[in-house]
Design goal:
By secondary structure, this protein is α/β, with parallel strands linked by helices. It folds into five domains: about 160 residues, Rossmann fold, CATH 3.40.50.720; about 140 residues, Rossmann fold; about 180 residues, 3-Layer(aba) Sandwich (Rossmann fold), CATH 3.40.50; about 80 residues, Dna Ligase, domain 1, CATH 3.30.1490.20; about 130 residues, D-amino Acid Aminotransferase, Chain A, domain 1, CATH 3.30.470. It has 24 helices and 35 strands. The strands form eight sheets. It has a seven-stranded mixed sheet with strand order 11-10-13-12-14-15-16, sandwiched between helices. Helix 8 links the parallel strand 14 and strand 15. Helix 6 crosses helix 11 and helix 7 packs parallel to helix 8. The longest helix has 19 residues. The protein is flat and about 95 Å long. The N and C termini lie far apart (about 80 Å). The C terminus is likely disordered.
Length: about 750
């Protein structure tokens, strides 16, 4: 095959032979992640240079496709013919590795694009991370990418590695091939992940992509592309920040049903929390929002660096947990079992309820000293014969409530603990466990104190897809991820596309809206607010109270007053006879607290029935877009911080989950003397608020606090809305909100 024919072949993929009419063209990003031809720009004969090391790494990794070194002053490097310039390379190569200083990158990319190269890996730093000069260079780089359409990973990247084909543009050697693909910004984090995998004989890697500064290729599109490769069975991500968090959420929502995604985040502190005018904004910490919305998209979020590889490996190799089934713990020691069960409970994992037949068979197998509930403790019955473990697993797998078995203790190390002659039996037991798992479709996770020792039976188990883990906590973390994935895939109502609707008619204004205007916006969105009247004077307020014929709340309407209660701008339980006097007190208090405040009128609402005080609000997160908050409301909202978040829009099912996550949910079912609240009505309110802020990107913050949830209604009592100061309508159309009137 000629070089030109090989290049043409590399751009095609599919079950048909390459070059035939039925072959499917590969995307530029797919060619970047799985290159069939590589151009090394800045190739060097100096072993200390990256341009030399890159070619050597490709050769040592067994990369069998064409490598084209480019260097104007060399003839051969490591046995390869060298091209004097990019335009001399056969047209249409898949990837260029650019090992040149940052100043040379823009022109080099233009040359690559002219040569038909699909993508480039830019190693150089000195862009957006170094200040003004770097920012100018980054802007030029962005212009080149937009102008040429070439796909770029980087700059400031560790590179790309395809361990399956040996396309090693990172330089790490002897990376084991396997089912885990990785997206990261940190070369050190990737190195740690690979070394950890080696140390625990993990499943290995398919494609590893270091995105660097994300000048072009972002997490979301890389995630979706990796999920298209059949060799990738899970995607593990480490991030220090997302260029487009909303795009990542929507990509994950599409990918997760077929390919699990695990994420470890850096930069989780509260230091990045922005100043906000509403209560919702002030309690929406960066980490709290990110954690909630990432999980909402189906991403398995881990908290520790040592969890990422373990959890990803388990999701990649273990069979799926059968719908509706739970976890059985099989242990050879009560201490380990108790710790495992505590950790499972803390993770929300339920133990199986074993039926009578299972318990009887376990008793007959293990003897009277054994514990045959869940957890099962063999009580020494396996010490002399490890095959008893396999028989106990067989019994447990036949139980209709068991969907996963967690083995805890010394498993596989009996030959070291008791008698070396047990090694053969432990090997046979390992083979039996693999056969049972395949036969019954029940995954097994093993925690063993001897997991760090090189043992044949452990290696057999790992090769067959059974994780063997030294730490009880990490083993439980893997089980929790498998259990959570089963529940998510089984419960289709929990899934959300997280796609934003087309923008609605733009609300006019910037900064805080007055409450009557905000109420009208909510009413137009179908959000019930009960009766309310805007009164222009004390006399009109008294008339409104008289018309309602019940005690009312009277609140000042002033553009200078956001939090009315804090400046004496609210009176509760106002009756007709005192309305004029109390309205005057409001004016005096507000003008004293906020000199020069303009009084536009008074909002009069009938007092709500007794109920639970809740918060419903929304913010526009700078990374993830519109986010809705729900939790305990009233004066203590910021002190309690009892709040759950979801990215909007979301489903009613997700709204119910959101409610259930809060302490406030315990108050909704008639706690002590409180009324029983209709949760469906509350969930519908949350969904409508989410739909509103999703359709109106100009809404920066929204506070409904408190929302009084009673036996008869769920009514927002106080409404605050803040519009963005810098929102630009996409089509220039603006609708003026109604700023007054009576809403019955």
């Amino acid at each position: 095959m000629t070089l030109e024919a090989h290049i043409a072949d590399s751009a095609l993929a599919g079950p048909a032979a390459a070059g035939t009419a039925s072959a499917v063209p590969r995307t530029a990003l797919a060619r970047l992640l799985d290159p069939r031809s590589i151009v090394v720009v800045g190739a060097s004969a100096n072993p200390a240079k990256r341009g030399f090391q890159a070619i050597r790494a490709l050769q040592r990794s067994g990369y069998a496709d064409p490598i084209y070194p480019v260097n104007p002053s060399a003839d051969r490097i490591l046995g390869l013919d060298v091209f004097g310039a990019i335009d001399q390379v056969p047209h249409g190569a898949d990837v260029a590795l650019i090992a040149l200083p940052g100043s040379a990158v823009p022109d080099t990319l233009r040359a690559c694009a002219a040569a038909g190269i699909a993508g480039a890996v830019v190693l150089a730093n000195g862009f957006g991370e170094i200040g003004d000069s770097g920012a100018r260079r980054a802007a030029e780089l962005a212009d080149v990418i937009a102008e040429t359409g070439i796909r770029v990973i980087g700059p400031n990247t560790s590179g790309v590695l395809n361990a399956t084909t040996g396309a090693n543009l990172i330089g790490l050697q002897d990376v084991p091939a396997g089912p885990v693909s990785v997206i990261t910004q940190s070369g050190n984090m990737l190195l740690s992940l690979i070394n950890d995998d080696r140390a625990r004989s993990g499943p290995g890697f398919h494609i590893c992509a270091g995105l660097g500064n994300q000048a072009d290729v972002r997490y979301d599109e890389c995630l979706e592309e990796l999920a298209e490769f059949p060799e990738t069975r899970v995607v593990a991500m480490h991030s220090e920040g997302f260029a487009d968090g909303r795009a990542l959420l929507t990509a994950a929502a599409r990918v997760v049903p077929r390919t699990p995604v695990v994420l470890l985040r850096g930069g989780r502190s509260e230091a990045g929390r922005r100043t906000a005018l509403s209560h919702t904004g002030s309690i929406a910490g960066v980490d709290a929002v990110a954690d909630a919305v990432l999980r909402q998209a189906g991403i398995e979020v881990v908290d520790r660096s040592d969890e990422l590889g373990v959890v990803a490996g388990a999701l990649a190799t273990c069979a799926a947990v059968a719908p509706g089934r739970r976890v059985a713990v099989l242990s050879d020691g009560g201490g380990h079992a108790a710790l495992a069960c505590d950790a499972l409970a803390a993770s929300g994992v339920e133990l199986a309820v074993l039926d009578d037949r299972t318990s009887r068979e376990l008793r007959a197998l293990l003897g009277e000293a054994a514990v045959v509930g869940d957890p099962v403790d063999v009580a020494g019955a396996t010490d002399a014969d490890p095959m008893v473990f396999a028989e106990a697993v067989r019994i447990l797998m036949r139980d209709p409530d068991v969907g996963l078995i967690l083995i805890i203790g010394l498993y596989g190390g009996y030959q070291l603990r008791f008698d070396a002659r047990l090694a053969e039996a432990e090997d046979r037991a390992a083979d039996r466990l693999l056969a049972l798992s395949a036969e019954h479709g029940v995954p097994i996770v093993i925690q063993s104190s001897y997991a760090g020792v090189e043992l044949a039976n452990h290696n057999r188990l790992r090769a067959g897809g059974v994780p063997v883990i030294a730490s009880i906590d990490l083993a439980v973390r893997a089980v929790a991820a498998l259990d959570r994935r089963e529940r998510r895939l089984t419960d289709s109502g929990a899934r959300s596309t997280l796609r934003l609707p087309p923008p609605g008619t733009v609300i006019d204004g910037a900064g805080p809206l007055d409450e009557p205007a905000a109420r009208r916006v909510l009413a137009d969105a179908g959000i019930p607010l009960g009766s309310w009247t805007l009164s222009g004077s004390a006399a009109e307020a008294a008339a409104a109270v008289r018309a309602y014929d019940r005690p009312c709340a009277v609140k000042v309407v002033s553009p200078q007053v956001i939090h009315k209660s804090e400046v004496g701008g609210v009176r509760l339980g106002v009756v007709a006879g005192t309305a004029v006097e109390q309205t005057g007190e409001i004016v005096a208090a507000v003008t004293a607290a906020v000199p020069g405040a303009r009084i536009d009128g008074f909002l009069v609402t009938p007092m709500a029935d007794a109920g639970v005080e809740l918060l419903v609000g929304a913010t526009r997160d700078p990374i993830f877009g519109p986010v809705v908050a729900f939790g305990s409301g009233g004066l203590m909202v910021e002190a309690l911080r009892d709040v759950a978040f979801r990215a909007a829009p979301f489903t009613e099912h997700e709204a119910h989950e959101m409610i259930e996550e809060t302490v406030a949910s315990r108050m909704l079912d008639g706690y002590r003397n409180l009324p029983v609240v209709d949760r469906r009505q509350l969930a519908r309110l949350l969904v409508r608020v989410g739909d509103l802020v999703a359709a109106h990107p100009e809404i920066a913050e929204l506070d409904l606090n408190p929302v009084i949830a009673s036996a008869s209604a769920v009514v927002p009592v106080d409404v605050r809305m803040v519009l963005s100061d810098d929102f630009a309508p996409p089509d220039g159309s603006v609708a003026e909100p109604v700023r007054g009137g009576r809403d019955e």
